[in-house]
TrEMBL record:
Record key words, sorted: Lyase
Pfam families given in the database record: MR_MLE_C, MR_MLE_N
Biological source species: Rhizobium terricola
SMART domains: MR_MLE (SM00922)
Protein name according to UniProt: Mandelate racemase/muconate lactonizing enzyme family protein
Origin organism lineage: Bacteria, Pseudomonadati, Pseudomonadota, Alphaproteobacteria, Hyphomicrobiales
Every Mandelate racemase/muconate lactonizing enzyme C-terminal domain range: 145-254
Amino acid sequence: MKIASLKTHVVAVPPPHVGGMYWIFVELETACGIKGVGELYDSAFHPSGLVPLIEDVFERYLLGHDPHRIERFWRAAYSSGFTQRPDPTMMGIVSGLEIACWDIIGKAAGRPVADLLGGTVHERLRAYTYLYPKNAAGEYDYNDPDLAAEEAVRMVEMGFTAVKFDPAGPYTNYSGHQLSLGVMDRCEEFCRKIRDAIGNRAEILFGTHGQMVPSSAIRLAKRLEKYDPLWFEEPVPPGQEAAMAEVARGTSIPVSTGERLTTKYEFQRVLQTGAASILQMNVARVGGLLEAKKIAGMAEAFYAQIAPHLYNGPVGAAASIQLSAATPNFLIHEAIIDFGGFHAEVLKSKLQFDDGYLIPSREPGLGIELDLEVVQRHSPYTGDRLHLQMAAEPADVKAFIPAKG
């Protein structure tokens, strides 16, 4: 079996752009006609510059090769240009192509990908969602703790046993920074009102985005401990595990991290330093399914748990669900509510959600199929914004604006 062709789709996500400004899907086809689909989660470059890089990696390391040889492809791409170090752009590209290979492998074997990653251990996967509250005008409002509490109740009524939110102010090009007293008051108010509204029916997940320096993170964590969050997410920017470990030692709240990390090498440092006990890799960025499985195995040896990150499209979600189904130390999976809306529109059949749980497909491969008519109707992406962006100016101590980029 040999890989014969590649198609790349850059799909513009309609307003309100839940899941990012665009999704990048790749389709591989073998010489014998088996097709596989993947997704890459890469925010650093505009798709107009990224698509030629995808084609270059494909032509150098995958075209004409057997899709079963995942390790060979991964090592060749990781070593490209005498690098052999984690690079988020390369790993995003590798992730998308590697996921598509697994889809082909599963279809050829007539088995879901989870069966090829060690076999299913979780028949259903506990899920959480961010809160997406709307005000009276129907606009998303992330700055009102009362609206957040109302939305938390609605999500619990849908079956969710955990909800996530980030009231810690803007994440900027200049983060981390010291949070103002007003922002810390607001963070505490969010936790108090949401906890009062949902009681012990669901966990609260404090989902920061690297806004703080360690001293500020510890100050905030001390104020939030009485609300017993399941985790304190990415309290400081990625890349300095010792700083995050300082936060982890300074609070009883478990620290989680990983959405901006790639490869086993970066996660090894997180585990070795004790920076986090909950790992949130995104399979569409981290290096693909096999790399994510290796990271999960490393975490298992440290009694750490896996809570995959997902703020992208449904192909990456389908791959992540297959990984989670085969991961013994799986904790919980991010969902975007019930994966309705545009996440459902671009697939022939939507991802399965039932009473707060994601149900892994038992169909061969990833168990999904793109609706190419919808994909083509929303392609290409012609905007200027990247998938996600940070605020351009430093945080203002007198500003009380919600977390946003």
